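ugh ok fine here u go
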Amino acid sequence: MGLDILIYNNDGICTNKSEISEDLHYWLFNLANLDKGRFRTIFRVQDYYKTNIQLSGIEISSFIEELKEIRKKSPYSKEIERIVNCINQQNISKIRITGD
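structure:
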């Protein structure tokens, strides 16, 4: 199982769901050589089993921009694009990313 991404609208209702697969997660934090200072929002999901974060406002924007940057050099670009498309919508107030 990957990390679940739950997407909430402005009324606080979970309207959609996506996932960061185990393979993508492994690549991000073991093979991609990402700069922790440059990809701060992404590194909030580094601990696979303890991840339970909520992002809203500018944090969602940062997460999207970091994913777009990573997508350029990732063998998981299609999965990243799917995640970005899912969370880059109008009426989204927050996203919650949770592990096992």
